[in-house]
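Researcher: Next sequence.
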Amino acid sequence: MPELPEVEVVRRGLQLWVVGRRIEAAHVYHPRAVRRHLAGADDFVARLAGATPMSAERRGKYLWLPLDSGDALVAHLGMSGQLLVQPTVAAHETHLRVRVVFGDGGPELRFVDQRTFGALAVEPTDAAGVPLPVAHIALDPLDPAFDDTAFALALRSRRSGVKRALLDQTLVSGIGNIYADEALWRARIHYDRPGDTLTAAAAGRLLAAARTVMTEALALGGTSFDALYVNVNGESGYFDRSLDAYGQQGEPCGRCGTPIVREPFMNRSSFRCPRCQPRPRRRSEAASPADPDVRITCWVRGRVQGVGFRWWTRARALELGLTGWAANLTDGRVEVVAQGPRSQCECLLGLLRDGRPPGVVTGTSEQWGSARPGLEGFAER
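Model: Next structure:
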């Protein structure tokens, strides 16, 4: 999935090629591409017609174009989404999902997405001009307003592994799997080290490493492992040639020469040097008799689909050390299944009810039971 440097490269291209041009028409070729626009494709098209993008903005991995209408065109690229600026006469791409045509007859904006995990939507904005579905996303380390001290305090208060914290977009945005591994390698920190065991110096070192690696990647146009990540002109980035840890399994560590190892992590992989980033001592994982492991199934009602609710739930569950999943149901509800100590499951339930999740929660119902074996990680389904 594109991370902060890749998304910032696209934002700069939109600023150059799209901002200030009146939109004449939009065409939707696949309904999933606008599934987050809850009013449907026809309303999406109608709200873009005649509007003019005033700037190109980004927070974390979200992009948006504030419109002179007061709304914003919001984009999340997902795993394979591309925003391309193409001549009007160019042949349509095989996976073209949305096309935006401008009144000046110049190059058009195309949303191309092979896997249709990405999406576009026209959304209202808050008083600060941030689209409502994006408002819960934290600032990224390259933002001038990022609060280093607050980040370090929050990171050091967490019992979860430090990489889980780096991937939590409500704590810090824009850091994905690739750059988390690179920052941890540079800071010589194991990905599973609990945040509350970090010293202030280690937290500062990690933040500095994250900033450095993302700045370097941005200068090289981001990281491209295949043809799916490109900038608005269809050009690939080159930072993948400078990676020290991610994807380097079996290669010698650039510091000590020890072969880099690959280990499973949250249904993905982590890459580290066994010598420079030794495994931390693990806390006891045995359940307390006074706080036994249980299983809760919670059904959440309201505007909770297509707004980042499952991702938010996953982040909260991982912070609490819970396993399970969050899944969209056909009736508009989200089903949340979590296992772990009862006190932590009760905490998650409280967060689902009034922890200010994305969207609007109008009610919940839940069912408790005994924990079941074989459940690992916390997935979005």
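Model: Helices lie at 4-17, 41-48, 148-155, 162-166, 177-187, 200-219, 309-319, 342-354. The chain has a mean pLDDT of 87.
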